[in-house]
C-alpha cells in the first residue's frame, strides 16, 4: 500500500444567501494499493466516452460506501462498489474517474 488517498463525504451547506449546496469534506485518509481494473468505452447519448475504472485496496474502515468519493493524486473518483475482504481485514473499492 503505497498510495495516499482521501475518502470524502458530501454534506449539505447553507450559503449566506440561504441557498443549499453540496460540499465534499474529508472523511478518511489512508494508504492504498491501486489496481487498474478496466479501461473501456461506453456509449452515452450517441457519443463514445472513455471510462477509467480503478480498484483501490485499503485496510478495513467502517462507513465507506457508494455515497462517498475517493481522491488520489488530485484525481477524483466516484465509488461504485465496496467489498470487504479477509474477515474485514481489507476493503476493495471500485471507482470510476469523474471527468
Distance between the termini: 25 Å
Radius of gyration from the alpha-carbon trace, in angstroms: 15 Å
Number of domains as seen in the coordinates: 1
Strand arrangement in the largest pleated sheet: 1-2-3-6-5-4
Q: What is the strand content?
A: over 45%
Give a written overview of the molecule.
The protein has 99 residues and is an all-beta fold. It has a single domain, classed as Thrombin, subunit H, CATH 2.40.10. It contains no helices and six strands. The protein has strands spanning 3-14, 20-44, 47-59, 68-72, 75-85, 90-97. The chain has a six-stranded antiparallel barrel. The radius of gyration is 15 Å and the shape is globular. It starts with a strand and ends with a strand. Mean pLDDT is 87; it is low at 45-49.
Note the topology:
Layout: E1 3-14, E2 20-44, E3 47-59, E4 68-72, E5 75-85, E6 90-97
Antiparallel strand pairs: 1-2, 1-4, 2-3, 3-6, 4-5, 5-6
Short description, anyone?
The chain has strands spanning 3-14, 20-44, 47-59, 68-72, 75-85, 90-97. It is an all-beta fold and 99 residues long.
List keywords for this structure.
99 residues, globular, mainly beta, Thrombin, subunit H, 6-stranded antiparallel β-barrel
